[in-house]
Structures are given as C-alpha cells and as structure tokens.
Amino acid sequence: MLKIQNLKVQIEKERILDHLNLNIKSGEVHVLMGPNGSGKSTLAKVLAGDSQYEILEGQVLYEVHFKEKDLLSMDISQRAQEGVFMAFQYPIEIPGLNNLEFLKTAFNSICKHQGVDVMKEEDFNNFALNKAKELGVDEEFLKRDLNAGFSGGEKKQNEILQMMILSPRLCILDESDSGLDVDSIKKIAKGINRFINKDRSVLLITHYHKLLELIRPDFVHVIIDGRIRKTGNFSLSEKIEAEGYDWISKTSQGL
Amino acid sequence: MTALKKSLEDKKKYKYGFVSPVESESLSKGLDESVIEKISSKKKEPDWILDLRIKAYRHWLNQKEPKWANLNYSPINYQDISYYSAPIQKKKLKSLNEVDPELLATFEKLGIPLSEQKRLSGVAVDVVFDSVSITTTHQDVLEKHGIIFCSISSAIQNHPELVKKYLGSVVPYKDNFFACLNTAVFTDGSFCFIPKGVRCPLDLSTYFRINQGETGQFERTLVIAEESSFVNYLEGCTAPIRDNNQLHAAVVELIALEKAEIKYSTVQNWYPGNTKGQGGIYNFVTKRGHCRGNYSKISWVQVEAGSAITWKYPSCVLKGNHSEGKFYSVALTHDKMQADTGTKMIHIGKNTKSVILSKGISSNESVNAYRGQVSMSPKALQARNYSQCDSMLVGNQARAKTLPLIEVNNSTAIVEHEASTSRLSEEQLFYLQSRGISMEDAISLIVNGFCKEVFKQLPLEFSVEAVKLIEMKLENSIG
Fold first, then answer.
1. Where are the domains of chain A?
2. Three-state SS across chain A?
3. Phi/psi at B471 (5° precision)
4. Closest Cα partner for A173 from A201, A199, A134, A150?
C-alpha cells in the first residue's frame, strides 16, 4: 500500500529524515519507535502533506486499487480523499465549528472524490452516533465544537472517532497514546483493533509498549537520526521498553 | 507584475468595480451656500428643508473633523468633491420600462433585478444611484397596507408632515461633523413609514450604488415604525473601482414607537481600495435608532466587508421602558483597510435591555477596531447589557483593537462584557484539509463558525450572500 523510498527531508536547513525506506502492505500494522527528535512526527506530517517540510530526495508511492500514485505530489486534502489519515499528536481546536458538521463536510468530500453516493444527513448522523458508541465516547462529543475545550484525552479519542467515521485505508497515528490514562489507552486500542482489516494498514508512532500489547503489531521499526536502524516484531518493543535505544545506536554504527 | 495585470487582478477581486456608461448631470466640485441652493432647487424642495440645510451648513463650517477614531488617512478636501450627480432622465418616469436600460443592466449585474418579471420576491427595493433614487418596487402591495416606502425626496414632497416631525429627531444636525455635512447636502435616500399595527409583509431594501467618480454620496434614510408595527429592512452598497478616494457620509434614523420592532441589516461592500491602499470609499456613517415607546425593539445587523475607511457606530437610544436594542456585527478588513466600528447603547428607560455581539476579522496589514459605549442612566433601573467582542487575526501583520466604554449611573443595572482574540492559523487549515476538506471549504468552516451567531440574524438570502462575500475576501487575502 505504501512505499517510502530513500526519503530525505529538511526543515529550515536542518536534515530530519535521511534516506528513509519503509514498505507497508495492506492489512499490516507497523510501529515506529525512536528517541525524541528522531524524525517520527516529521514522517507523519510529511505523509499528511505539511508544507513546512522540504523534500530533498526520494519518493512515496501510495497504491490504490493496484495503481501506484505519487503521494508527495498530491495536495493535503487530496491525500485524505484518497484514503490517507493522520491522527494528530496535538489535535487543533476550532471554536465555533461543530464537530458533527465538520465530520459531515469531511465525509462528504471524501465520498465525492471516491465516487460514492453522499449519505443523507439523518443517515450520516446515525452512522456517526453509532461509531461514537462503538468507541465508547459520550454522544455529546459530536455536539461540541471541534476539540474546543476538550481535555487532552478527549482530543485523542476524537481523532480515533474521526478515523472510524472517515474510514481511511492508510492510517498514521502520531502518538495517539501519549498522555493517556490506562482506560483511555484501552479505548483507543479498541478503536484501532476494530478499524484494522485486510484492506487497511496502520502506521503507529509511539513511545510506549502498553498500547502495543493491546494491538499486537506485525512489525516494529526503530528510527534514529532520521533513518530506520532496526526492524523486528513485537519482541523488539519489549526489549526497548526494558533497555532503551542506546544498544541500537551502537550496533547500527557503520550501517 | 505590470500595472495592467495588477489592476486586472484587483478588478477580479472586487466584482462590483465596473462603471456604467450612464449619462449624468453633476454639479461642479466645491461646496458653498449656492451649491446647497442648487441641490435644493433641483429637487424642488420646500423652503423649510433648504433652511435646515443652510443652518446645518453654517454650523458645519465651524466644526472640526473628528480625530479620535483609530484611523489614519490623508485629509479630505471638501472642495474637491461634487455634491450632486444624477443620471439624466428625460421625462418623469411612469413605469420601470422607461428607466435607462443601462441602469437596469447595472442593477441586474449587481444581482438586484428591477424588471417586473425578475424582481426578488418578498423584497421591495428602493434603488439609489449616485445622488438620486431611481425606483422603488412593489408599491402596490405596500400601499394596500398603508406602508409608505419611497425615496426621501419624494417623501419630502408627498408626506411633509411626517418628514418634518421625524427628520433630525434622532440625529440632529449638530450631532457630529459628518451628520452635519449630510444634513446640509443630502441628496437622496429611503423613507419608510409603517403605520400602527402593521406587520410589513415584505422585507424592505435599499440598494446604494456610487457610479460617478469624484462624487460624494450623502444619503439620508428615515424609518418610522408606529405602535405595534414590524419591519425588516435591508441595505446593500457597492461602488466602482477608482484610484482616488470617495466620500460616503450617510445618516440613518430609526424611530420605534410603543411595541414596534425594527430590524435593520446592512451588507456593506463599498470598494475598499487596492492592495496598496490606493482608492476606496471613505465611509463615515451615522446610524442611530430611537426606541421611543415602551416595549419597542431595534436591532442592527451589519456585515462590513468593504470601504477603505469605516467609521460607523449604529446605536440605540433606549428611552421607552422595557425597550430592547441589539447590535450584531461582522467586520472584515484586509490589505490596508481600516475599520473603526461598534455601537452605543444608551439606556434611559427602566428594564431596558441590550445585546452587543461583535466579530472582527482582520487580515494582511489591516486594522480593525471595535469601539463601543454602554451607558446606564440614573433612571435606567434594572437595565441590562451583555456585550461580546471577538477578534480573529489572519496572518501576522493584522491588528485588532477592542475599546469598550461602560458608564453605569445606577446600582441596579447589570453590565457584562466578554472579549476574545483568536487566530485563523495555518495549523487550523492544515488540520481541516488533512481530513479531505478543500482549502476554500476549510476557510469557510472556520470563518462561519466564528461569525455564525451574527449571520444567523440576517435574512436567509442576505446571509448566504454575506457568507460568500466574506469567504471570497478571505480566500484572496490568504491566497
């Protein structure tokens, strides 16, 4: 589904991603771990289309219905319409904009792009309400203004709710578990587990092992200084939880 | 960029910037008593109006232009303005078919169809072109209810008793510099009288169009709602693109008698000048409503999206006990525009109530100031006011100011004031776009969210127009 090839990215003359390669197939759950400042969030934002980063080299191919498209040439909203979704590490507040109305606008614009009939207003409202119940969040969520006055945990849950409603194919979750209590992490894990199927892929950025115990990823990658230094399975995250990243930096020297 | 390309771009941005090739007669530039006499005689006015004009003019000569507003502009040369311009009409019009087709085409282009077949249903329109009123539609329906809706010139001729009684009773000529000038030289405007107990079946609307260059527009509007009547009044304005500044100094007076209600909505889209701040309308307007009777209500709704300079404070004098004044405003400034706008709520009667909701959006290098006054007189027992002033900044060079003045002279009055400043940020736009929403829709969602409480107050078609207008202007300034 996603092929990141030799990606080099900088911001304000500072190199953040350095010859990064990553392949994600349909139905796979990949985890990206790494020390602070290693380039995890940058990768997420570059994939979502944040224009403050400068792409120096490399390409990102995104495959939809057996056709590979150049993801980096698409504008931000087009990527979302093609089924790419990023859950923000710090979701943005928009006072005055009703959450449900926002979701409806986004949903309709994705439907239109994909040539799917737009749902009737009432049907969509029920659909959204059901998703909220599925995730286990209060239906008041949908009536409030988008993230305005939400607690940190509520904001992250709202990201997962958006993901469940907008039904993307590729989902990039940027530290969706940071700052959450155990119960909230469980809720988010439930949302992600329900979301995963053979046609969808997830790239999960995290610092913690906790969420991974609940999700059981297929691959775990470690990114250091803008490059993937180590790839393994679930057990790699256990080792990191116990030992940190130092041993990888050492063993990967000379790569 | 070549000058031509630049000016074409500017034209694209302001779609009402065209000039109509209508034959006009204008007075030569300059202002003295003979000019005022000429205006008065062209309009065949009775002596008492001429006397009022001259009195105002002599008073004005000793006045100084107010400088307290948060505005910066080169001095206005009052002798460099033509005070009268009117399309030449060969004879008195019997029907709309005799109106110059160029004029009809102009208003068609502005989205105000005047021909019988295409008229806006449910809205009666009085159309003011430069200094004179061209036509007023839907007369038959209005007459049936005893409603008078016509140009102020024709009201002076046909209903002198009403004009004499009410003109200047809310905004006297000594009120301020610009109102005084307006009293001396006003050329036309709308007059509206809703008799006792009548709920006006149509929305009434005045459309102001400045066409001639170097002409000032000084219109005068008077709306009277007798006991237990109701009227919804709409006002729209546009002007061609010109490199020089043009002066617009209007006076609007509203009078609501016992249990009457007036809703007055404006969408102001005068030419704001180009991106360098050249040209544009200087908009110095005095609007005031007088809640004279008990339980009367006046509300002002304004969307201020044009003009190089806006100096405007639609106000309510709440004299009747239990009377209510409301002010809902969205003011948008971009490029080098400057707006100093707000309201005054003067509470005199007991149990009077007022609500102020002001939303300012400033982008580019523009300056947007809310200036408000709430005063509670010693007799305004149990009076209440709630004010909320929100500013949104777009980009990092725009400025917003909030300057509320609150005077409370009795201990039973309750005054509340809330204010906030926010920013339409790249992050917000990125967030919405990353959910599949286009840039245009993202701006519109954010701005609509910010302004929705005000837009809600506008009649439907007006609100749709206002939303489009604000979106278009912001898209241009965010690029």
1. 2-251
2. CEEEEEEEEEECCEEEEEEEEEEECCCCEEEEECCCCCCHHHHHHHHHCCCCCEEEEEEEEEEECCEEEEHHHCCHHHHHHCCEEEECCCCCCCCCCEHHHHHHHHHHHHHHHHCCCCCCHHHHHHHHHHHHHHHCCCCHHHHCECCCCCCHHHHHHHHHHHHHHHCCCEEEEECCCCCCCHHHHHHHHHHHHHHCCCCCEEEEECCCHHHHHHHCCCEEEEEECCEEEEEECHHHHHHHHHHCCHHHHHHCCCC
3. -60, -45
4. A201
A-B Cβ pairs (cutoff 8 Å, strict): 77
Q: Residues 159 to 218 of A: which have CB under 8 A from any B CB?
A: 162, 166
pLDDT in tens, A34-86: 999 899 999 999 999 998 899 999 999 999 878 899 999 999 999 999 999 99
How far apart CA B353 and CA B345 sit, in angstroms, is 9
| Complex-level ipTM | 0.94
- Mean pLDDT, rounded, for A201-226: 92
Least confident residue range of A27-36, A115-124, B265-274, B410-419: B265-274
Residues A94, B449: C-beta atoms closer than 8 Å = yes
- Are B227 and B197 in contact, with CB atoms under 8 Å apart? yes
> Whole-number mean pLDDT of chain B?
85
- Chain B residues with beta carbon closer than 8 angstroms to that of A96: 446, 448-452
Query: For an interface test with A, which of B431, B440, B456 has the most A Cβ atoms less than 10 Å from its Cβ?
Result: B431
**A46 shares contact with chain B (CB less than 8 Å):** no
C-alpha to C-alpha distances, B369 to B279, B338, B343, B383, B436, nearest whole angstrom: 21, 8, 12, 26, 35
- Tens digits of residue pLDDT in B232-290: 988 876 666 666 678 889 999 999 999 999 999 988 888 888 888 888 889 999 999 99
Cβ <8 Å between B433 and A75:
yes
Question: N- to C-terminal Cα distance for chain B?
Answer: 17
pLDDT reported for residue B311: 94
The pTM of this model reads: 0.81
Do residue A94 and residue B428 have CB atoms under 8 angstroms apart?
A: yes
Q: With an 8 Å Cβ cutoff, is B479 touching chain A?
A: no
Distance, in Å, from the CA atom of B315 to the CA atom of B215, rounded to the nearest integer, reads 27
Model confidence at B137: pLDDT above 80:
no
CA distance A240 to chain B (A): 32
- Higher-scoring residue by pLDDT: B90, B230: B230
Distance between B174 CA and the closest CA of chain A, angstroms: 42
Asked whether the beta carbons of residue A94 and residue B432 sit closer than 8 angstroms, the reply is yes
The domain over range A2-251 is classified in CATH as 3.30.450.30 = no
Is the Cβ of A50 closer than 8 Å to some Cβ of chain B?
Answer: yes
Closest-CA distance, B439 to chain A, in angstroms, reads 8
Give pLDDT, residue A254.
Answer: 41
